[in-house]
Amino acid sequence: QEIDGIVLYAAADCTGHGVPGAMVSVVCHNALNRAVREYGLREPAKILDKTRDIVIETLKNSHQESISIKDGMDIALCSVNFNSGELQYAGANNSLYIINPNRSVAVENAKIFGEKGEGFEIKADKQPVSNHFNNEPFTNHIIKLEQGDCIYSFSDGYPDQFGGERGKKFMYKKFKYLLIDIYHKPISQQLLELENTFDN
Description:
The protein has 200 residues and is α+β, with helices and mostly antiparallel strands. It has helices at residues 18-37, 44-60, 172-182, 187-199; strands spanning 2-3, 6-14, 73-81, 86-92, 96-99, 111-113, 119-122, 141-144, 150-153, 162-163, 168-169.
């Protein structure tokens, strides 16, 4: 979604299954939209702070016994300003990866991964967008983008998928190295590689 020259996008995953899970998804989706449209917020961390307030208040007032006030959302939320070349990110349990072996400077506050240090992980805050035992303001990360940066936002669905001969989780380490193997390919080809690896 583009607002005021800034593109906002997110990868999110809500807790719960079936009808309760669907209702939590609707509550979280509406809260995100309100934080941006009604409250005019553009900074990802402030959007998540306000979204959490709205989600907690909405679920507190819900008469659905199947929905817990602790239900909520994991999310990687980004804003991109294409004029300034700046990306802002805030995350609730969902980190952000940037891969580019030719970066002139490392990504600030990022953990480096890959054999050649080509990957950068910006860690999410270890809290969901919901009522948590230790609610803290979300952290806003500002990244100056460089030519060749490939940015990956995701839920835990891919690395936590069970499969293979031993029925084990795929895991984040394998996910990182898969992205390093494919980042230089066209995006459509990357999609095929991710789908094929997942299916296999």
